[in-house]
Amino acid sequence: MSTVFNIIFKCRSFSERTIFTWHRFNRTEIWREAMSGAIKKATGLTGLNVAKNPHHTLTALYNKILRAVAKMPQDAAYRRYTEQIVSERAKIVASTPTVREVEDKINCGQVEELIIQAENELTLARKMLGWKPWEPLVKQAPATQWSWPPAKIHELK
């Protein structure tokens, strides 16, 4: 972009006098202002299409994650940390009108990437409900479970 300035002449009239003022605007600033409301045409990431309605999609996914996590026990570590992160992101999406601001506030990539992250988190939350990692073990783990090298395991008494 060039740094050539446009000079705009404005005329203001106060009572009976006319005041002339000169305003200088950088072309790049005018271009940025005009394009700030433009629709995003590409993500710049191969195979990742632009989301049509990212606010709605993210809100729906975050609500599904919160409902899935709510079925877990209160003291489950996965529930506590996932609820904290997802509810924080849901508040940002609900309170922020523009996609760019959502991306800047969450700071974890483009909204299309956030949608993929939320879909993966929803899949994991549903799998965790089936796995139930908060329940006690079916049988006691062997004492040599974490010993190294693995050859020592065969040297049982």
UniProtKB/TrEMBL annotation:
GO biological process entries: respiratory electron transport chain
Keyword Metal-binding set for record: no
Cellular compartments per GO CC: mitochondrial inner membrane
Membrane topology: Peripheral membrane protein
InterPro entries (alphabetical): NDUFA5
Localization in the cell: Mitochondrion inner membrane
Keywords: Electron transport, Membrane, Mitochondrion, Mitochondrion inner membrane, Respiratory chain, Transport
Pfam families: ETC_C1_NDUFA5
Keyword Acyltransferase annotated: no
Main subcellular location: mitochondrion
Quaternary structure (record): Complex I is composed of 45 different subunits.
Its job: Accessory subunit of the mitochondrial membrane respiratory chain NADH dehydrogenase (Complex I), that is believed not to be involved in catalysis. Complex I functions in the transfer of electrons from NADH to the respiratory chain. The immediate electron acceptor for the enzyme is believed to be ubiquinone.
Family designation: Belongs to the complex I NDUFA5 subunit family.
Protein name: Uncharacterized protein
Organism listed in the record: Aedes aegypti
